[in-house]
Amino acid sequence: MTGEPSVTYVYAVVAPAARLDGPLADLRGVGDAQVALLSPAGPVDGPAFVISRVPAARWTEDVLRSRFEDLAWLEETARAHHHVIQVLMEHTSVLPLRLATLYQDDERALAALREEQDAFAARLALLAHHTEYGVKIYVVPEAEAPDAPSGAPAGTDALAAPSPGKAYLQARRAQRHAREERHLQAGRAADLIAAAAARYATRTVRHPPQAGPLTRRENGENVLNDSYLVPDDRAEDFRAALRQAGRDLPGIRVEVTGPWAPYSFATPPDRPTETDPPGARP
């Protein structure tokens, strides 16, 4: 920064007394801005913000409105934001904040930090030594609907064979039945996955299924899109249990991703989508 007005960009909240001087010394964030720790004056006995000071003129509401429509800028900024989170995760418990969390200056940021100190501390305690994993269930793409047959197959009694129109309707009916069966299988798979995850995860968040032509074409239809908060010492058992639960489910594909920063669990559990899995450990 060369004297131009700045605003305070906040990446995350980190645990009290986090030893981050070394990791942050050369870390660059959004817009190649230097990353720093921001905490109340005096002994560090509460959560701190990890921040950058970025040019105010480039982060106004009007500028951001247009920039969020620029996919190249959005991807670059999201990657830079996520990189900072990933570095922090290697050294301390992290409460990731949303992309473009901004305050007018450091004092406004510190005021917000003090106001939410107890909530931040409680959430960091929940996330300590835990990592997020994603679990998706897909219905495998079905074959394209067959074209209406032009006539009876060779060697078939024309009187016994259905008409072209009837044969087409029968084929579509069979296809619909197969699709319904796959969705029933997906429901059973979701129950199996939830039961397996409950033995290991301490929290879960249910996201809306992913949609869009690209998702359906490459992966099938996404019918379940959950995130689980898993203790680090149970992660391998969690993944193995889900792999086992996902076997022998025809027409269904189960995908487990992670480990991720706990973005899905960054806000307090006041949303109805976040729950303690049945049978989860306290």
Structural description of this entry:
There is one protein chain. The protein is of the alpha+beta class. A five-stranded antiparallel sheet has the order 8-5-7-6-9. The protein has a four-stranded antiparallel sheet with strand order 2-3-1-4, sandwiched between helices. It folds into two domains: 6-127; 130-275, Alpha-Beta Plaits, CATH 3.30.70. It is 37% helix and 23% strand.
What's the arrangement of secondary structure elements?
Layout: E1 6-14, H1 21-24, E2 36-38, E3 48-55, H2 61-67, H3 71-89, E4 94-103, H4 106-115, H5 117-127, E5 130-139, H6 164-198, E6 203-206, H7 213-219, E7 221-231, H8 235-245, E8 252-260, E9 274-275
Antiparallel strand pairs: 1-3, 1-4, 2-3, 5-7, 5-8, 6-7, 6-9
Helix pairs in contact: 6-8
What is the CATH architecture annotation of the largest domain?
A: 2-Layer Sandwich
Main sheet: strands, sense, barrel: 5 strands, antiparallel
Mean pLDDT: 79
Order of helices and strands: EHEEHHEHHEHEHEHEE
Q: What name is given to the CATH topology of the largest domain? A: Alpha-Beta Plaits
What is the radius of gyration?
25 Å
